[in-house]
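This is your field. Have a critical look at the following sequence-structure pair:

***
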Amino acid sequence: MPTILRSVLIAAACICWDVPLAPAQQGLNFSFDSVARFDAAANRKALWMKGEVAEGDLDRLLRFLREHAWDFVEHGGRVVFVVDGGDVGEATRIGHFLRDALIEAWLPDASRTRCVSACFFMFANTVSRVAVAD
């Protein structure tokens, strides 16, 4: 898919997804980090989701993407999960958003990072998935 079209689809999905504001809670942390440690050929960063899924994380993710839309597109529109479980319902909603926005999900090597419980529901719901094993 051409980059510009993908960028437009991601932006549209972020704007169109209507999520009621949830109270602020501890949940996933979002940051742009390198993917070189599990894909040496990839000289890019990706959006990393780390921590435990909590209610309101979809809303926090959408706000993060709105605030960092250009960075997200510039880094290839990928998300990497390092998630220790949490709210399965919220994880499923996040997965549905990632699917609708055509965002690719990566799972780094399980021997070095974690993706358990609720993480599976995010990963399984995306349309494009890459699991890396060493």
About this structure: The radius of gyration is 14 Å.
